[in-house]
């Protein structure tokens, strides 16, 4: 976990305790329950979170406050989830998103 901040000059000591595992593109990575998904991914050196619709350019964390859509991924089958503001939960399955994501079949 080399990319995690252990002490912040304003927020103080790192008080996170419950380390869990989440699945990202079929691979288990460690994460702290309750931290933003994007924080866990960046800490595990996963930088590309999605690719753009038109030309497939990689995107990552940009605003880190839920305003833009650069960090959207498919979380538990739902596309376009902003990972910078969505907390990690047990048994999450996260996938890198291509374009607008796969919304599944149209209802009949």
- Corresponding CATH superfamily: 2Fe-2S iron-sulphur cluster binding domain, sarcosine oxidase, alpha subunit, N-terminal domain
Q: Element order, helices and strands?
A: EEEEHEEEEEE
Enumerate how many helices there are, as a single number: 1
Radius of gyration: 14 Å
**Average of pLDDT:** 86
The CATH topology corresponds to Ubiquitin-like (UB roll)
CATH top level assignment? Alpha Beta
The CATH architecture is: Roll
How would you describe the shape?
globular
Characterize the structure shown.
- The structure is a single chain.
- The chain has 108 residues and is mainly β.
- It has one domain: 2Fe-2S iron-sulphur cluster binding domain, sarcosine oxidase, alpha subunit, N-terminal domain (Ubiquitin-like (UB roll), Roll), CATH 3.10.20.440.
- It contains one helix and ten strands; from the N terminus they run ββββαββββββ.
- A five-stranded mixed β-sheet has the order 4-3-9-7-8, with helices on one face.
- A hairpin with a 3-residue loop joins strand 1 and strand 2.
- The N and C termini lie far apart (46 Å).
